[in-house]
Amino acid sequence: MKVNTPIWHPCTQMKDHETYPIIRIERGEGIYIYDAEGKGYIDAVSSWWVNLFGHNNPRLKKAITDQMDKIEHVIFAGITHSPAQTLAEELVALTPDELTKVFFADIGSAAVESAMKLSYGYRYNTQNAKKNRYIYLDSGYHGETLGALSVCGEQLYTELFGQIMIENIRVQGPDCYRCPFGKERNSCDAECFCHMEKAMAENHEHITAVLIEPLLQCAGGFKMFPPVYLKKLVQAAKHYDIHTIFDEIACGFGRTGTMFALEQAGVCPDFLCLSKGITSGYLPLSVVITHDGIYDAFYDDYTTLKAFLHSHSYTGNPLACAAGVETMKIFREDSVVEANAKKFPVMHEYINKKFGGRPHVGEIRHLGCVSAIELVKDTATKEKFDWKSRTGFQIFRKAIEKGAYLRNLGDVIYFMTPYVITEDEMIKLVDIAYESVYEVL
Are strands 361-367 and 370-375 parallel, antiparallel or unpaired? Predict the structure, then answer.
């Protein structure tokens, strides 16, 4: 029977729900979400990678309700407020010294598009408008609005809309599991950077910026690559006068083991895009952090028409900023990054113990608080399963039966839990994943 609901869900073939009923979630607590019948599910993917400190967190609830008693929202053009001011100061203090200016938006793709427009706006305002295209990686993902989609390397998202997007330059990126140079992730010199170097050399006169998700390409199959790639990227970009846009929307705020992934390479981009965990997943908010050189290109008398005319209705929303301020306090007061460095290796070790050497396990990947298991048809040849068989999706559905929302990405099973998960809960989750994988396979 055709699914009868007024809601059209994202990233979903609605016809699937003829077989698998939509789960109605009524409440959450810690790492669990609970349906209308009271069944609990471990939120193994942090509700799309946003939740850091658990559902129904009393500190975050209080921060939001306290702000509600003051003001819920106000236009952000020519008006400021304490939560935005405090959050901006916190972010500038946490990021490299060169990054001094915070531009607020509301969602991740809006931050990416803001950075793209700021980069080109800088070129236009400095009489270099011919630099009007972007470079991106073939497994990169930066959101699904049209501008962000034009720098998305995943054909699944872009194929339908190719005729209405600007044409940018796609470059083969790192794939450490199937490295064409036969190198190892932890000991290579990012030989694969040659593809990016070539693209920059050949096109730099028309390229304003390069976009990258540092160290971790989530939507691209949870590919993980070494910091040396970022070092080479920033060095080459400076040589060719190309801006660097680091998209840490998913991998920022401790996910890769440091507060920001860029720290592991010791580099600073021209633009840093942040969202998701910035409010612990409680309210939508995003920012672009950049340097004085970009800011100054827009700073002039009104009649020069150099102002950055870009806005969103909920830019700098006070409730979201209050959640962001409290999130930064939790990081600082609870030494979250340091605590995670001790906690998550327990999960890594148990995943290795359960899945290491098992049939169809192509590669197990860990980076900070993220783990991924790439399942393949043949481990010797690294041959993938037929995508039409939806192996990963079957495992996802089996895990739901067992009490874990372990959403797959193709045939990659990944773990990106809230930071408040306990060691016992880690063991429980990995056991559910293991049982689900091998009941299906």
Answer: antiparallel
Residue 1 in this model has a pLDDT that exceeds 90: no
Alpha carbon separation from 234 to 4, 48, 129, 175, 245 (Å, rounded): 50, 29, 22, 19, 10
Q: pLDDT tens-digit profile of 300-323?
A: 999 999 999 999 999 999 999 999
pTM: 0.97
In this structure, which amino acid lies at residue 78?
A: G
Strand partners, 55: 30
Backbone angles phi, psi at 149, to 5 degrees: -65, -25
> In 281-411, where do the E strands start and end?
286-291, 361-367, 370-375, 404-405
Percent helix, strand and coil across the chain, each rounded to 5?
Answer: 40, 15, 40
Q: What is the CA radius of gyration of the chain?
A: 22
Position 35, amino acid: D
How far CA 349 is from CA of 311, 352, 356, 371, 434, in Å, comes to: 46, 5, 10, 11, 14
3-state SS class at 317:
coil
